[in-house]
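HUMAN: You are asked to prepare a plain-text protein record giving the amino acid sequence and the backbone structure tokens, both parts labelled.

ASSISTANT:
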Amino acid sequence: MKRITFAALCIMLILIPAAAFCQYNQPGGGGQAGPNDVLMEQYVTSGAATLSDSLMSGAQLNNYGESAPEVWTAADNNRNLRFVITCGTAGQSLSFKPASGGVIILDGIALTVNHKITNLNTALGNKVACSTFTTGANSCSWSCNSDGSFADGGL
């Protein structure tokens, strides 16, 4: 069995790119995203806001640092939208409302048209994941799955 000297080990560490050591901590291993990995950009959204398609395309939204309840409204109900809302400030409610005429199916239950969902338990880390799905030739609805902390928030 060969032994590696300390000097040889130091040279090897200098020559091997740092990325080679980090790949094992990346989603899917080897630096490649696996089929079950979710890669998300995080955005802190403040105040009442209209969410653009770019914010609803694979992002994680939270209300970190906010001191008042927030209602976030979808700009539209287009296809292929998906995002996660996470409570980043304990004690502050968050609501998500579909664009006009939109319907949210929350944890398998269809809400009334234009109703929003609101987190009732405002504990840090509470979350809901939402995505659109086709319901007609030119229409989509929202499917939202929560950790049990979100409910129908009315109009």
About this structure: The CA atoms of residues 114 and 140 lie 13 Å apart.
